[in-house]
Description:
This protein is α/β, with parallel strands linked by helices. It has four domains: 26-144, Enzyme I, Chain A, domain 2, CATH 1.10.274.10; 160-256, 3-Layer(bba) Sandwich (Glucose Oxidase, domain 1); 259-279 and 442-583, TIM Barrel (Alpha-Beta Barrel); 295-438, Phosphoenolpyruvate-binding domains (TIM Barrel, Alpha-Beta Barrel), CATH 3.20.20. 46% of the residues lie in helices and 14% in strands. The strands form three sheets. An eight-stranded mixed sheet has the order 1-8-7-3-4-5-6-2. Strands 17-16-15-14-11-10-9-18 form an eight-stranded parallel sheet. Strands 12-13 form a two-stranded antiparallel ribbon. Helix 12 (315-328) links the parallel strand 10 (296-300) and strand 11 (334-337). The radius of gyration is 25 Å and the shape is globular. The two termini are 39 Å apart.
Amino acid sequence: MALQLFGIPVSRGMAIGRAVILASARLDVAHYFIDPGTEDAEIERLRTARRAVREELDTLKADLPADAPAELAAFIDVHKMLLDDRQMALDTINWIQTRRYNAEWALTAQLEVISRNFEEMDDAYLRERIADVEQVVERLLRALRGSAGLARSASGDGDLVLVAHDISPADMLQFKAGVFRGFVTDVGGKTSHTAIVARSLDIPAVVGARVAGDLIRQDDLIIIDGDAGLLIVDPSPVILDDYRLRQQESLLARERLKRLKFTPARTLNGDAVELLANIEQPEDCVAALDAGASGVGLFRTEFLFMNRGGQLPDEEEQLEAYRRVLVAMQGRPVTIRTIDIGSDKPLDMVDYRDGEFTHLNPALGLRAIRYSLSDPAMFRIQLRALLRAARLGPLKVLIPMVAHASEIRQTFAEFDRARAELRESGTAFGPVEVGAMIEVPGAALALPLFLRHFDFLSVGTNDLVQYTLAIDRADESVSGLYDPLHPAVLNLLHQIIVQTQAAAGWKGRPTDISVCGEMAGDPVLTRLLLGMGLRSFSMHPAQILAVKQEVLRADAEKLAPLVQRVLQAFEPEEQQEALAALG
Length: 583
């Protein structure tokens, strides 16, 4: 009889295959006391394993394919940083020296201490980072016992799915080679690194399935429904045939979407719609062009700054990254956001100032433009690199989380200082348009101030929803309340779009406005946003063709009055009826 298990859906699609069980390397660790006088030899054994894992991670990063998601390299760097953590190494050695634990026992003992510290943290996102520590320890344990990589022993040569307590993002590199069709983990959440990589690789995945590792046996036939968060173990022939048909239909639908790459994005009534790509590394431009993006709507520069042990990128390194994006996009417009460190994107997990680690950056604290303005020298390094890069193509600079007139004045003053410094040094630079992200309700309600100063606006719906509803989107205990369709969010978004369009008359020229949050890449919401008047969407490259299909099928003129019904619906049932009318 088929067994059904439920978890958290983190990556859409369906996978069917035989189970490969990846047992935790900690389950079979030998525990014994070493002989007196052999402590140094045991410590050297640990150091040898550490060097082996360092080489393994370096090789993994060097062998990343050119089209690999940028997140993979970043997550490998996180593991290298944890591997080189001096305090963790010293504490592990202390177990060997004072207790005469063998190296494996010392590692797992120290992991338990670290785990308890993480469990006491209030921040859900940071609590999830214990998974990264666990994955590094498991690599060390495998190196200590003379093994490395994932062990596989499923029968047959068919498709395989991986079942594990947790999976390292680095280990997931095997998915690129087509070894596994999907994966299931006992732990994890939507904000875990593994979930993020799964979405980037477009692999069906379910995490947080709790007892899956205990109930699923080696070589069991499994269906992973990444849309519903459902696992079906040993399905009946009828269920299996049904899912195989659904899987085939899904693959055919994706192939059909590829035919739209060169089709201009226009609604049925003739309105041109701009479909831009969100990227995190210069290498992501390949995927953006493959999807037919008309430009880059958001280049997240913080990934240039993270996981560097406090050694921030200098002007030349930043210039090279920006140059690569502008050249790769072949004259298409590129919007680069200044550093948005803080909240769920901390700088090396903590704030690094004056050579030492200080406080954490919460969502309501020192983040985004506040962080940049608190360190004008660092900010101007980025601004100078951006201004120099502007000679290579059409460049826009986007300022995140602006909320106050004083921040606007300070930002433009730093631009002026950066230009003056470049002139003084005789360095050439180009013109840039400067825009603001509207992601704080206070900014949305004071929109005339922003329209007066900025050339364009971009709505960051992820944070706008979070701040409007007072929901920490990284906290799974309240994640069910995170609702982009909340009436307050929709009315605020509509107000931003309408006011920006109306500003064209008194400002003398139109101010561009786009949406660059998750809402922009959700095909279910495309008609709603078109009906609000939005004509510029920025999203992950993998979402562009699906959104384009919705654009091509939509008549924006007919959608506008239907959207008014949605905006006036405050009860869930009324809203669902109004949304259904959009088609």
